[in-house]
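Q: Sequence in, structure out?
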Amino acid sequence: MTTLPFVSIIMPVRNESAFIVQCLSAILQQDYPADRMEILIADGESDDDTVAKIQALNDPRIRIFPNPARLQSHGLNVLIDHAGGDYIIRVDGHTLLAPDYVQTCVHVLQETGADNVGGKQNAVGVTPMGRAIATANTSWFAVPSGFKVSDESGPTDTVFLGAWPRSVFERVGKFEPQYHPNEDYMLNYQIRQAGGVVYLSQDIHSTYIGRQSLDRLWQQYFNYGYGKAQVALTMPESLRPRHLVAPLFVVGLFGGGIIGLFWKRAAVLWQFVLMLYGIVMGIATIQALHEQVDDPAEQQSQLWRVPLVFVTVHVAWGVGFWARLYRAWTEPGD
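A: Exactly. Output:
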Protein backbone atom coordinates (compact mmCIF):
# COMPACT_ATOMS: atom_id res chain seq x y z
CA MET A 1 0.00 0.00 0.00
CA THR A 2 1.29 3.44 -0.95
CA THR A 3 1.85 5.68 2.08
CA LEU A 4 -0.37 8.74 2.02
CA PRO A 5 1.45 12.08 2.09
CA PHE A 6 1.86 13.85 5.41
CA VAL A 7 -0.47 16.86 5.69
CA SER A 8 -0.16 20.04 7.76
CA ILE A 9 -3.41 21.80 8.63
CA ILE A 10 -2.67 25.48 9.32
CA MET A 11 -5.10 27.76 11.17
CA PRO A 12 -4.63 31.46 11.97
CA VAL A 13 -7.12 32.37 14.71
CA ARG A 14 -8.05 35.21 17.03
CA ASN A 15 -11.06 35.24 19.35
CA GLU A 16 -12.72 32.22 17.76
CA SER A 17 -14.23 30.89 20.99
CA ALA A 18 -17.72 30.54 19.51
CA PHE A 19 -16.81 27.92 16.91
CA ILE A 20 -13.25 26.72 17.57
CA VAL A 21 -14.28 23.45 19.22
CA GLN A 22 -16.64 22.58 16.37
CA CYS A 23 -13.98 23.52 13.85
CA LEU A 24 -11.24 21.42 15.44
CA SER A 25 -13.60 18.51 16.07
CA ALA A 26 -14.36 18.40 12.34
CA ILE A 27 -10.63 18.32 11.61
CA LEU A 28 -9.90 15.64 14.20
CA GLN A 29 -12.69 13.48 12.75
CA GLN A 30 -11.32 13.52 9.20
CA ASP A 31 -11.20 10.18 7.43
CA TYR A 32 -7.54 10.85 6.67
CA PRO A 33 -5.13 8.73 8.78
CA ALA A 34 -4.48 10.43 12.10
CA ASP A 35 -0.77 9.67 11.98
CA ARG A 36 -0.42 11.42 8.63
CA MET A 37 -1.76 14.79 9.79
CA GLU A 38 -0.73 17.63 12.09
CA ILE A 39 -2.73 20.71 13.14
CA LEU A 40 -0.81 23.96 13.59
CA ILE A 41 -2.56 27.00 15.06
CA ALA A 42 -1.29 30.59 15.16
CA ASP A 43 -3.10 32.54 17.86
CA GLY A 44 -3.26 36.31 17.34
CA GLU A 45 -3.30 37.14 21.05
CA SER A 46 -6.91 36.13 21.64
CA ASP A 47 -8.45 37.82 24.66
CA ASP A 48 -11.28 35.30 25.02
CA ASP A 49 -10.99 31.60 25.90
CA THR A 50 -10.04 30.39 22.41
CA VAL A 51 -6.65 29.03 23.51
CA ALA A 52 -8.08 27.38 26.63
CA LYS A 53 -10.66 25.55 24.53
CA ILE A 54 -7.99 24.37 22.11
CA GLN A 55 -5.78 23.12 24.94
CA ALA A 56 -8.72 21.34 26.56
CA LEU A 57 -9.00 19.06 23.52
CA ASN A 58 -5.62 17.62 24.57
CA ASP A 59 -4.74 16.16 21.20
CA PRO A 60 -1.02 15.61 20.49
CA ARG A 61 -1.48 16.54 16.84
CA ILE A 62 -2.36 20.13 17.80
CA ARG A 63 0.38 22.71 18.35
CA ILE A 64 -0.15 26.40 19.08
CA PHE A 65 2.21 29.19 18.03
CA PRO A 66 2.07 32.89 18.95
CA ASN A 67 1.13 35.47 16.35
CA PRO A 68 1.87 38.81 18.08
CA ALA A 69 1.35 40.73 14.82
CA ARG A 70 -2.27 39.52 14.89
CA LEU A 71 -2.47 39.66 11.10
CA GLN A 72 -3.76 36.59 9.31
CA SER A 73 -0.89 36.68 6.81
CA HIS A 74 1.73 36.70 9.58
CA GLY A 75 0.04 33.77 11.25
CA LEU A 76 -0.08 31.78 8.03
CA ASN A 77 3.59 32.42 7.35
CA VAL A 78 4.60 31.36 10.87
CA LEU A 79 2.73 28.11 10.42
CA ILE A 80 4.16 27.42 6.97
CA ASP A 81 7.64 27.78 8.48
CA HIS A 82 6.82 25.15 11.13
CA ALA A 83 4.81 22.83 8.87
CA GLY A 84 6.27 19.41 8.22
CA GLY A 85 3.71 18.28 5.66
CA ASP A 86 4.15 17.40 2.01
CA TYR A 87 0.85 19.23 1.56
CA ILE A 88 -0.36 22.29 3.48
CA ILE A 89 -4.08 22.89 3.96
CA ARG A 90 -5.50 26.11 5.37
CA VAL A 91 -8.55 26.19 7.62
CA ASP A 92 -10.23 29.15 9.35
CA GLY A 93 -11.51 29.07 12.92
CA HIS A 94 -15.13 29.47 11.78
CA THR A 95 -15.15 26.85 9.02
CA LEU A 96 -16.41 23.28 9.49
CA LEU A 97 -14.83 20.72 7.17
CA ALA A 98 -16.65 17.79 5.60
CA PRO A 99 -15.23 14.45 6.86
CA ASP A 100 -13.44 13.82 3.55
CA TYR A 101 -12.07 17.36 3.15
CA VAL A 102 -8.38 16.57 3.67
CA GLN A 103 -8.57 13.36 1.65
CA THR A 104 -10.28 15.17 -1.23
CA CYS A 105 -7.83 18.09 -1.22
CA VAL A 106 -4.90 15.68 -1.49
CA HIS A 107 -6.64 13.73 -4.24
CA VAL A 108 -7.50 16.83 -6.29
CA LEU A 109 -3.96 18.21 -5.92
CA GLN A 110 -2.49 14.94 -7.15
CA GLU A 111 -5.03 14.41 -9.92
CA THR A 112 -4.91 17.93 -11.40
CA GLY A 113 -1.30 18.85 -10.69
CA ALA A 114 -2.58 22.23 -9.51
CA ASP A 115 -0.61 24.49 -7.21
CA ASN A 116 -3.61 25.45 -5.09
CA VAL A 117 -7.03 23.84 -4.81
CA GLY A 118 -10.14 24.79 -2.89
CA GLY A 119 -13.87 24.30 -2.83
CA LYS A 120 -16.94 26.48 -2.85
CA GLN A 121 -17.62 28.77 0.09
CA ASN A 122 -20.87 27.39 1.50
CA ALA A 123 -21.93 30.05 3.99
CA VAL A 124 -24.45 29.56 6.80
CA GLY A 125 -25.98 31.90 9.35
CA VAL A 126 -26.90 31.46 12.98
CA THR A 127 -28.88 34.71 13.36
CA PRO A 128 -31.67 36.10 11.14
CA MET A 129 -29.29 38.61 9.58
CA GLY A 130 -26.54 36.00 9.40
CA ARG A 131 -28.82 33.75 7.36
CA ALA A 132 -29.60 36.63 5.00
CA ILE A 133 -25.88 37.33 4.65
CA ALA A 134 -25.33 33.66 3.78
CA THR A 135 -28.09 33.79 1.16
CA ALA A 136 -26.74 36.97 -0.43
CA ASN A 137 -23.26 35.42 -0.44
CA THR A 138 -24.37 32.99 -3.15
CA SER A 139 -25.60 35.71 -5.51
CA TRP A 140 -23.79 37.07 -8.54
CA PHE A 141 -25.02 40.49 -7.41
CA ALA A 142 -22.93 40.50 -4.22
CA VAL A 143 -19.29 39.58 -4.93
CA PRO A 144 -19.25 37.24 -7.94
CA SER A 145 -16.03 35.36 -7.17
CA GLY A 146 -15.97 31.88 -8.65
CA PHE A 147 -15.74 30.16 -5.27
CA LYS A 148 -18.98 31.89 -4.23
CA VAL A 149 -21.15 31.51 -7.32
CA SER A 150 -19.69 28.92 -9.71
CA ASP A 151 -21.02 25.36 -9.91
CA GLU A 152 -18.23 24.20 -12.22
CA SER A 153 -14.85 22.68 -11.42
CA GLY A 154 -11.80 24.03 -13.17
CA PRO A 155 -8.99 26.60 -13.20
CA THR A 156 -9.90 29.92 -11.59
CA ASP A 157 -8.26 33.07 -10.23
CA THR A 158 -8.67 32.41 -6.49
CA VAL A 159 -10.27 29.88 -4.15
CA PHE A 160 -11.71 29.66 -0.65
CA LEU A 161 -9.08 28.70 1.97
CA GLY A 162 -6.59 26.69 -0.10
CA ALA A 163 -4.44 23.55 -0.20
CA TRP A 164 -0.94 23.56 -1.64
CA PRO A 165 2.03 21.28 -2.26
CA ARG A 166 4.76 22.56 0.04
CA SER A 167 6.97 23.30 -2.96
CA VAL A 168 4.64 26.15 -4.02
CA PHE A 169 5.83 28.36 -1.16
CA GLU A 170 9.45 27.60 -1.98
CA ARG A 171 8.85 28.61 -5.59
CA VAL A 172 6.63 31.72 -5.38
CA GLY A 173 7.00 32.81 -1.74
CA LYS A 174 4.50 33.05 1.10
CA PHE A 175 1.70 35.44 2.04
CA GLU A 176 2.53 39.15 1.83
CA PRO A 177 1.20 41.17 4.81
CA GLN A 178 1.20 44.42 2.81
CA TYR A 179 -1.84 43.12 0.89
CA HIS A 180 -3.93 42.33 3.99
CA PRO A 181 -6.70 41.16 3.82
CA ASN A 182 -6.24 40.24 0.14
CA GLU A 183 -3.02 38.30 0.68
CA ASP A 184 -4.65 35.06 -0.46
CA TYR A 185 -5.73 36.60 -3.77
CA MET A 186 -2.25 37.97 -4.32
CA LEU A 187 -0.59 34.63 -3.59
CA ASN A 188 -2.90 33.04 -6.15
CA TYR A 189 -2.05 35.79 -8.62
CA GLN A 190 1.65 35.10 -8.13
CA ILE A 191 1.05 31.40 -8.62
CA ARG A 192 -0.73 32.07 -11.91
CA GLN A 193 1.96 34.51 -13.03
CA ALA A 194 4.55 31.79 -12.43
CA GLY A 195 2.64 29.44 -14.73
CA GLY A 196 0.84 27.54 -11.99
CA VAL A 197 -2.82 26.57 -11.74
CA VAL A 198 -5.36 27.54 -9.10
CA TYR A 199 -8.20 25.02 -9.21
CA LEU A 200 -11.78 25.18 -7.93
CA SER A 201 -13.21 21.73 -7.18
CA GLN A 202 -16.87 21.08 -6.47
CA ASP A 203 -15.83 17.90 -4.64
CA ILE A 204 -14.21 19.85 -1.78
CA HIS A 205 -16.86 20.67 0.82
CA SER A 206 -16.93 22.80 3.95
CA THR A 207 -19.33 25.06 5.84
CA TYR A 208 -18.37 28.68 6.41
CA ILE A 209 -19.92 30.48 9.39
CA GLY A 210 -19.71 34.05 8.18
CA ARG A 211 -20.55 37.43 9.69
CA GLN A 212 -23.84 37.52 11.58
CA SER A 213 -24.60 41.25 11.69
CA LEU A 214 -24.48 44.21 9.31
CA ASP A 215 -21.89 46.10 11.34
CA ARG A 216 -19.49 43.13 11.26
CA LEU A 217 -20.21 42.69 7.54
CA TRP A 218 -19.51 46.38 6.92
CA GLN A 219 -16.13 46.13 8.66
CA GLN A 220 -15.25 42.99 6.71
CA TYR A 221 -15.99 44.50 3.30
CA PHE A 222 -14.53 47.89 4.15
CA ASN A 223 -11.29 46.04 4.91
CA TYR A 224 -11.57 44.09 1.65
CA GLY A 225 -12.02 47.29 -0.34
CA TYR A 226 -9.22 49.03 1.54
CA GLY A 227 -6.89 46.11 0.88
CA LYS A 228 -7.90 45.89 -2.78
CA ALA A 229 -6.92 49.55 -3.24
CA GLN A 230 -3.50 48.67 -1.85
CA VAL A 231 -3.31 45.99 -4.53
CA ALA A 232 -4.32 48.60 -7.14
CA LEU A 233 -1.55 50.92 -5.98
CA THR A 234 1.23 48.35 -6.09
CA MET A 235 0.12 45.78 -8.65
CA PRO A 236 -2.75 47.18 -10.76
CA GLU A 237 -2.36 44.51 -13.42
CA SER A 238 -3.73 41.93 -10.98
CA LEU A 239 -7.15 43.61 -10.77
CA ARG A 240 -10.24 42.17 -12.41
CA PRO A 241 -13.16 44.31 -13.67
CA ARG A 242 -15.36 43.04 -10.81
CA HIS A 243 -12.99 44.66 -8.31
CA LEU A 244 -13.85 48.14 -9.62
CA VAL A 245 -17.65 47.87 -9.75
CA ALA A 246 -18.24 48.80 -6.09
CA PRO A 247 -15.84 51.79 -6.13
CA LEU A 248 -17.52 53.15 -9.26
CA PHE A 249 -20.94 52.56 -7.71
CA VAL A 250 -19.94 54.62 -4.66
CA VAL A 251 -18.71 57.46 -6.89
CA GLY A 252 -22.02 57.45 -8.74
CA LEU A 253 -24.06 57.16 -5.55
CA PHE A 254 -22.50 60.04 -3.66
CA GLY A 255 -21.03 62.10 -6.50
CA GLY A 256 -24.17 61.90 -8.59
CA GLY A 257 -26.32 62.93 -5.65
CA ILE A 258 -24.19 65.99 -4.95
CA ILE A 259 -23.93 67.09 -8.59
CA GLY A 260 -27.67 66.55 -8.97
CA LEU A 261 -28.31 69.26 -6.41
CA PHE A 262 -26.96 71.81 -8.90
CA TRP A 263 -27.63 70.22 -12.27
CA LYS A 264 -31.11 68.95 -13.09
CA ARG A 265 -30.04 66.55 -15.85
CA ALA A 266 -27.51 64.95 -13.52
CA ALA A 267 -30.24 64.54 -10.93
CA VAL A 268 -32.47 62.75 -13.45
CA LEU A 269 -29.61 60.45 -14.46
CA TRP A 270 -28.79 59.76 -10.81
CA GLN A 271 -32.41 58.84 -10.08
CA PHE A 272 -32.47 56.54 -13.12
CA VAL A 273 -29.29 54.75 -11.99
CA LEU A 274 -30.70 54.29 -8.49
CA MET A 275 -33.93 52.93 -9.91
CA LEU A 276 -32.01 50.52 -12.16
CA TYR A 277 -29.87 49.41 -9.21
CA GLY A 278 -33.02 48.79 -7.15
CA ILE A 279 -34.63 46.75 -9.92
CA VAL A 280 -31.57 44.57 -10.43
CA MET A 281 -31.16 44.17 -6.68
CA GLY A 282 -34.80 43.11 -6.38
CA ILE A 283 -34.35 40.50 -9.12
CA ALA A 284 -31.16 39.20 -7.47
CA THR A 285 -32.91 39.02 -4.09
CA ILE A 286 -35.85 37.01 -5.40
CA GLN A 287 -33.52 34.72 -7.33
CA ALA A 288 -31.26 34.08 -4.31
CA LEU A 289 -34.22 33.39 -2.02
CA HIS A 290 -35.79 31.05 -4.58
CA GLU A 291 -32.57 29.07 -5.02
CA GLN A 292 -31.34 29.00 -1.41
CA VAL A 293 -34.34 29.18 0.93
CA ASP A 294 -37.20 26.64 0.94
CA ASP A 295 -39.19 27.71 4.00
CA PRO A 296 -41.75 30.43 3.13
CA ALA A 297 -41.50 32.01 6.58
CA GLU A 298 -37.72 32.24 6.27
CA GLN A 299 -38.06 33.72 2.80
CA GLN A 300 -40.33 36.40 4.25
CA SER A 301 -37.83 37.05 7.03
CA GLN A 302 -34.98 37.51 4.58
CA LEU A 303 -36.90 39.47 1.95
CA TRP A 304 -35.94 42.86 3.41
CA ARG A 305 -32.64 41.74 4.91
CA VAL A 306 -30.97 40.46 1.73
CA PRO A 307 -31.18 43.88 -0.03
CA LEU A 308 -29.60 45.48 3.04
CA VAL A 309 -26.76 42.97 2.76
CA PHE A 310 -26.23 43.80 -0.92
CA VAL A 311 -26.09 47.55 -0.22
CA THR A 312 -23.75 47.04 2.75
CA VAL A 313 -21.33 44.91 0.73
CA HIS A 314 -21.22 47.30 -2.23
CA VAL A 315 -20.95 50.55 -0.28
CA ALA A 316 -18.50 49.22 2.32
CA TRP A 317 -16.19 47.79 -0.35
CA GLY A 318 -16.33 50.99 -2.39
CA VAL A 319 -15.82 53.32 0.58
CA GLY A 320 -12.90 51.21 1.80
CA PHE A 321 -11.32 51.35 -1.65
CA TRP A 322 -11.52 55.15 -1.85
CA ALA A 323 -10.40 55.55 1.76
CA ARG A 324 -7.12 53.82 0.94
CA LEU A 325 -6.59 55.89 -2.21
CA TYR A 326 -7.33 59.08 -0.25
CA ARG A 327 -4.75 58.07 2.32
CA ALA A 328 -2.20 57.46 -0.44
CA TRP A 329 -2.94 60.93 -1.84
CA THR A 330 -2.75 62.76 1.48
CA GLU A 331 0.15 60.74 2.90
CA PRO A 332 2.55 60.23 -0.03
CA GLY A 333 4.90 57.31 0.42
CA ASP A 334 2.57 55.50 2.85
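The first strand starts at residue 7 and ends at 13.
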